[in-house]
Design a protein that fits this description.
Blueprint (H helix, E strand, L loop, with lengths): L1 H4 L4 E4 L17 H28 L3 E6 L12 H21 L4 E8 L12 H9 L9 H13 L8 E4 L10
Helix pairs in contact: 2-3
Length: about 180
């Protein structure tokens, strides 16, 4: 990326997977499943930031938006590895914002509610409706709604860093915490 374009001004770390290998409770989770989810959802964010921050500093600053999850802010049934990884994204975002904010590298995270992505492809209609009903707006979020918030944080907010922004259709406000 840097060699081809010479600089990176913005990075969105959006990769995310859920465990499809084993049960995903703290006791039932396998090490292989843990490593896969942590490796993608948390290590991937760290590697992405590590790859661009020095260049951003050299170029006078930049913007990074990491995708966490509302699952990072509470426990959810059978999502131990995902919740842990996305919780790590929250901590890593805050730490990196603290370290690199003085260099005008502004780093924030978005914590989506349930978004209608391929990760939900195999859930039942009943599960889909239950997820929709957890939100005040009574529907699943759209990827474009998360993209809009990413774009906002990339363009605006010169005084915004180290924050976690829920984009959750009112899930937290509904009292799901």
């Amino acid at each position: 990326m840097l060699a081809e374009h010479g600089r990176v001004d913005a990075l969105a770390n959006i990769a995310g997977v859920v465990n499809m290998i084993s049960e995903d409770s703290v006791v039932g989770l396998t090490e292989e499943a843990w490593d896969q989810v942590i490796g993608t959802d948390l290590k991937g964010v760290w590697l992405g930031m590590q790859a661009v921050i020095s260049s951003m500093i050299d170029n006078g600053g930049g913007r990074i938006v990491n995708i966490s999850s509302m699952a990072a802010l509470r426990g959810l049934p059978n999502l131990a590895s995902y919740s842990a990884a996305k919780g790590g994204v929250v901590g890593l975002t805050k730490q990196a914002a603290y370290e690199y904010g003085p260099h005008n590298v502004l780093i924030n995270a978005i914590a989506p509610g349930t978004i209608d992505t391929p990760i939900l492809a195999d859930i039942t209609d009943e599960m889909r409706q239950a997820n929709a009903n957890a939100h005040i707006v009574r529907r699943l979020g759209l990827p474009s709604e998360i993209a809009s918030m990413v774009a906002y944080l990339m363009r605006e907010g010169d005084f915004l860093t180290g924050e976690i922004y829920p984009v959750d259709g009112g899930w937290a406000a509904k009292g799901n915490f």
